[in-house]
Amino acid sequence: MENHIQNIELINNYLNKTLSGEELKAFENRLKVDESFAKEFETHVLFLEGLNRQQLKEEIKKVKQSYVKSKWFKYLVFTSGLVLALLVIIYFNGFNSDKEYLKGKMNFESEYIQNFKVDTDSIVEIVGEKGTVIRFNPKDLETISNKSFTGDSLSIELIELTTKQDLLLANAQTVSDGKWLISGGAFKIGIKAHGEFLILKKDKIMNATFPKSTNEPNMELFYGKRDKRGMMNWKPIGDSLRLNPYVILIEEGYVIDVEFTKLYGVDGFKEVYVCDTLGFLRTKDVKERLPKGNFYNYNIDTLRILKERVKIIDDKYDCEWSWIDIIKTFKTKTLDSLYRKKEVVIDSVLIDLDINFASECREIWGEVTRQISKREHDTLRDVFSKVEYEKQRSKYYMDVEEIKRFDNIADSIYQSIEISKLGWINIDKFALDEEKVNVKLSISINTNFNEIRVIDKRNNTILNVYGNQIDLPVNRSFQIIAFGVKGKDIYGFKKSVRFSKNGNLKVDYKKIDESQIKSILVID
Amino acid sequence: MNDKKILELFKDGQREKAFVKLYSLYPKIETLILSKGGNKQDASDVFQEALIILNRNLEKSDFKLTSSFYTYLYSVSRFIWKDTQKKFSKQELHNLNDIEVESFHSVLEEKKYQLAELAFLKLGERCRQLLQLFYQKAMSFKDIAKVMQFKSEKIAKNQKYKCLIKAKDIYRNSKTVRS
User: Fold this and answer.
1) I need a surface site. Which of A106, A139, A268, B145 has the fewest CB within 10 A?
2) Nearest 5°: phi and psi at B144?
3) Are strands A220-226 and A206-209 parallel, antiparallel or unpaired?
4) Would you call A49 and B113 a contact, using CB atoms and an 8 Å cutoff?
């Protein structure tokens, strides 16, 4: 047995490679010559391999366990991910539904929509309730895919937001890429044919006149677009409102003086002024239409032109007729030299001549077309609108209201502009950079979604607050209106604020009914 | 899975890591065995056997892996399963390609090691422990005596010899029965 043990030990040493050179040589030689030793070696190796299988199986078992674990872990991760994704989707659906619900309740844009139906066979002109005038040629329109539209009528949607209140209720914040704007009104024009939205063809324009809601000078034109969140952003088109003045022409006319006629039994006439609005005319058009006009300034909103008959008298006759209207009378020493002339300039005034030497003072009658100031315009008495004048020229009728209306229109509208894009249009100017303070907002209730508006009490500026802080001009008064939503519960907050330094504002919500939203949105 | 990297792991003695990588092939082998009427346990046993065969061949200096690990393991697994089911037909054996012939031989070769393993498993628990400590844990007889509470190193040495002889007897007997 001892011999056997030694053999096995020798084999183990051989397998473990611990034999010396000589021993190894002797071992290998013995394997070759000693058959029973070789067999013993083979059986031993075989058995060790069998034993080794056990070790391998242990290793593989461990690997299998870790494989199964990792498989389950992957399943778990995947399932957890799926569950998490589902939860996120559910949360965001809830959040989005809350968000959409609140946004929908806060936006009263649809209440401002005015609808018009027009034919396509002629130039279209529509007038909005607040004075917006849109003029366009239907031939200048096409579908969004640049194809001709069909149909003989168009549906026009017009929105006129002329006040801060309108802008707030229609959720039209006055911001251009983060910069505050002072709004002079926001307008939306949408045109459809057969329910399909139309656009202006390339290089085609639309003429529009917008009512003026602010006296802020240097207003610019902005095109607006709502982003995915429904927030408005305006982009300047880099073109100030063009100076096409609104032209009012005042001419002399005569109507029957009813009182005089009744008193004396003969027709008596009274001199009146007939006022006609020529609309927005380019300087070139004004000059073409009134070539003999005396204009001192085209660069104004409203051009008032008075066309009246004047007298030129000979200086040496010195007619001292008390009834002569000095304003309308020009004196010259060379009256005879004007004979056969069509026009003359006296005291820098161009007079369109109407030769008549019949009177005692050798008067020459002419016509002067001159620009007058608003003040002079206001001093005119017996002013008729052209329409009224033409309707009622056979009777004495005094109605200055109509004229006043013209005057009001002229004072309350911007110059006519040409727009090349439909949709949202704004007449704005950038607010000046002012020293600002940072206000951090904290919300009293853990709502799912909040809509916060900042209303500048001084300017036509409405802002939406996106984060939990806002920079406000120092020492300026603002009104903060906020709404929050959690499920179907709505919370409201309204407060006037003024900050002289960085500070905090707690949005202290109170639960409200959705019917209260609009009343809270009313600016104090 | 990169076969080259797995091969390097085997060469570097990081067998367990290589097995981890190869286990990613298990689902395919499982599908194979399930499609042949086996169950999941059968699949697990077959795959384990295939890994043992692969390992044995890789340890041979003259072995060259001529296909991907997947192809090799798939082929070997197929033969292991057939061998288990004893479903080799003569026709099938005639039509084997080179890889399949190699796989077939490997499976047959492994059988003798399986018998040796079986012999080991038939030993009593103390014998198994003693042989494992000596061969697998490479412990000295002195330490083995201490761990297994033999009175002396020599007794441990004699006990080991007896266990080995007994295992070899079991192996020879089982081989005879099988033959």
Assistant:
1) A139
2) -60, -40
3) unpaired
4) yes
Q: Would you call A50 and B161 a contact, using CB atoms and an 8 Å cutoff?
A: no
Q: Is the pTM for the entire model greater than 0.90?
A: no
Give the span between the Cα atoms of B38 and B133, in whole angstroms.
Answer: 36
pLDDT tens, position by position, A144-167: 888 888 878 899 999 999 888 888
Residue B108 CA to residue B114 CA, distance in Å, equals 10
Q: How far apart are the first and last CA of chain A?
A: 114
**Of the candidates B58, B57, B67, B49, the residue with the CA atom closest to the CA atom of residue B12:** B58
Residue A314 near residue A362 (C-beta atoms within 8 A): yes
Q: What's the pLDDT tens digit per position in B39-72?
A: 999 999 999 999 999 988 888 877 777 788 888 8
Mutation pick from A42, A53, A55 vs chain B, by most beta carbons of B within 10 Å, is: A53
> With an 8 Å Cβ cutoff, is A8 touching chain B?
yes
Contact between residue B134 and residue A15 where contact means Cβ atoms under 8 Å apart: no
**Selection from B109, B79, B70 nearest residue B97 by Cα:** B79
A171-217 pLDDT, tens per residue?
888 888 878 888 878 889 999 988 888 998 887 777 777 777 666 66
Structure tokens at B116: 């040796």
| Assigned token pair, A425 | 């249009």
| B117/A55 touch (CB, cutoff 8 Å), yes or no | no
Q: Indicate the residue of A49, A54, A63 with minimum beta-carbon distance to B16.
A: A63
